[in-house]
TrEMBL record:
The entry's keywords: Membrane, Transmembrane, Transmembrane helix
Organism in which the protein naturally occurs: Rhodocollybia butyracea
Lineage, top ranks: Eukaryota, Fungi, Dikarya, Basidiomycota, Agaricomycotina
Domain of life: Eukaryota
Name this polypeptide is given: Chitin synthase III catalytic subunit
Gene Ontology terms: biological process: protein folding
Entry keyword Cell cycle: no
UniProt-recorded Gene Ontology molecular function terms: unfolded protein binding
GO cellular component: endoplasmic reticulum membrane
Alphabetized Pfam families for the sequence: Chs7
TM regions (residue ranges): 68-88, 100-117, 129-153, 165-189, 209-233, 242-262, 274-295
Length: 309
């Protein structure tokens, strides 16, 4: 597997979302459509992936419910994140309140797209699935910028909630979202081929897409946890919040292991009913919850000079 290669991921990782983009790339090319074999041969029943070794059939195929486990977990996660957003908004005096709220909103927005793009609900190769997957990719890339921005705000380099903090946040969020959206659409639709697919589309390779959906999230997460551990232990001398962040980091790693290691095992063991995506979503939402708890434990909910404090 070379850098930027998706072929192995799309074959061995059930419900790997970004494979939706490559399916369209192959199906629209008459000379490459023959590469869609096995479970991918029929677009109306094909699961997420490119000739996957195991995949959840599209909803309605042989009474398939689609990726029902992850659909349910995404819906429940939306409820949980809504609660976090409300609680965050109530902590008026907390440092980084607006920035954390923005991150939670981006994560909330990504969940319905995840529900659809890897839920085996829409036909593979359809324009609707491609566009929704591209938006999902943009939201994921933006989410990790929002996560990193929260760590930078915690250093108090600039004052939180002010124009000096929010303008760079919104500008970079727009650039990252727009850039990733363009790359994703270029991979699937071949609009310009500038940042899209490889010159040999049968390789299922796109370095820009790999960077924005795999490498960038990993780098941003590492820097976030590193900065927060330094702030909590090195500057605040607090142990309890550090435990929240360490556990959040562990759960984030477990979520990725569930995607890439448990997915195929669960898919085969369940007869193509579930895969590792729902476990990954549980761990990802739990990670967000622990990030919220870590932030809550190092901030004040109200101003100390408030007469009702």
């Amino acid at each position: 597997m070379s850098f930027g290669d998706f072929e192995s991921l799309c074959t061995n990782t059930p419900s790997y979302t970004w494979c939706n983009l490559f399916y369209r790339q192959l199906s629209e090319n008459s000379t490459l459509s023959s590469l869609l074999t096995g479970l991918s041969a029929n677009s109306s029943t094909a699961p997420v992936g490119i000739h996957p070794s195991c995949g959840i059939p599209r909803v309605g195929t042989d009474r398939s419910l689609g990726n029902i486990a992850n659909i349910i977990v995404c819906a429940l996660s939306m409820v949980a994140v809504t609660g976090m957003i409300i609680l965050t908004e109530r902590r008026k005096a907390a440092v980084g309140r607006v920035e954390l709220r923005n991150m939670l909103i981006v994560y909330f927005a990504s969940l319905p797209f995840q529900l659809i793009t890897n839920g085996s609900l829409l036909e593979q190769g359809s324009t609707a699935l491609v566009v929704l997957t591209a938006i999902h990719a943009g939201l994921v890339a933006t989410l990790f910028w929002a996560l990193l921005a929260n760590a930078l705000i915690s250093t108090q380099v600039v004052e939180d909630g002010t124009m000096s903090s929010l303008v760079p946040f919104y500008v970079l969020s727009s650039l990252i979202f727009g850039g990733t959206l363009y790359i994703s659409l270029d991979v699937a639709l071949g609009i310009t081929h500038t940042l899209g697919p490889s010159s040999h589309p049968n390789e299922l390779r796109s370095i820009p897409l790999f960077i924005m959906t795999s490498l960038w999230p990993a780098i941003a997460a590492i820097f976030y946890f590193g900065i927060m551990i330094y702030i909590v232990l090195g500057m605040l001398k607090e142990v309890r919040p550090a435990l929240y962040y360490v556990l959040a980091g562990v759960l984030f790693v477990f979520s990725q292991l569930a995607w890439f290691l448990l997915g195929k095992v669960l898919c085969i063991g369940s007869g193509s009913k579930v895969d590792g995506s729902f476990i990954a979503t549980i761990f990802e939402t739990a990670t967000v919850g622990l990030v919220f708890l870590g932030w809550k434990s190092i901030t004040e909910g109200v101003w100390k000079d408030d007469p009702y404090y």
